[in-house]
Amino acid sequence: MLAYPQIDPVAFSLGPLQVHWYGLMYLIGIGGAWWLASLRLHRFDPGWSRDKLSDLVFWVALGVIVGGRLGYVLFYDLAAYINDPSLILQVWRGGMSFHGGLIGVLLCTWIFARRNGKGFFELMDFIAPFVPIGLGAGRIGNFINAELWGKATDVPWAMVFPTDPAQLPRHPSQLYQFALEGVALFLILWIYSRKPRPTMAVSGLFGICYGVFRFIVEFVRVPDAQLGYLAFGWLTMGQLLCLPMILGGAGMMYWAYRRDARLA
């Protein structure tokens, strides 16, 4: 068994203001994605300036934060937030939904695309390879917060999390998600998108890979206590939300290559 590193969730304080690692991970994720996007900017559109990229990053970040928070409220714990709406603003306590953030990004990207004369999937294919930077950073934030841990296990790398009332050795599922949703997904998309691909193909591959990775890890991750398992004694909300991503991603890739072959 490995010892859980006791990390103060508060990175530093400025007087009464406490800066949490969880919030810093979002800044790191957005900043890292911004930097990588700047490296591919001229290949995406030689006419785009860095100011235009900055505008895109702002819209995407807005979608991530607002969509992620509202998605968690709607998908995972609506009753608690109805009872105390002030909890919605307490983002430093965790409670962000990837799928809600994805919906927010899709909506904001659609608006940005319309305003800037770009195709929606043209922009999404550009954005998709940078998303795993934010996903990976967010999972490190979950690990520091000692939240979203896995099921009890006897594997040699199990950890006892300080937030676990039972104090059992558990799968560090946050690190599994960091490795898959962050590192592996980034490498797959970055390498795949280095060459020109049919429009929609990169976005489709993102949907397939993220959906599969998340679906797998959910088998060893403890579901949210207020929801538990939704069906068959094992299906979680995360898995349920990933199914349309996998199917939709596969359909997008099929259509992208079929249309490309017809145009060739």
UniProtKB/TrEMBL annotation:
Enzyme class: transferase
Membrane topology: Multi-pass membrane protein
Residues annotated for a 1,2-diacyl-sn-glycero-3-phospho-(1'-sn-glycerol) binding in this entry: R139
UniProt keyword Ribosomal protein, yes or no: no
Subcellular location: Cell membrane
PROSITE patterns according to UniProt: LGT
Transmembrane segments: 19-36, 56-76, 96-113, 120-140, 175-192, 199-217, 229-257
Top-level division of the source organism's lineage: Bacteria
EC numbers on record: 2.5.1.145
Keyword DNA-binding in record: no
Pfam families linked to this entry: LGT
Protein task: Catalyzes the transfer of the diacylglyceryl group from phosphatidylglycerol to the sulfhydryl group of the N-terminal cysteine of a prolipoprotein, the first step in the formation of mature lipoproteins.
HAMAP family according to UniProt: Lgt
Protein name: Phosphatidylglycerol--prolipoprotein diacylglyceryl transferase
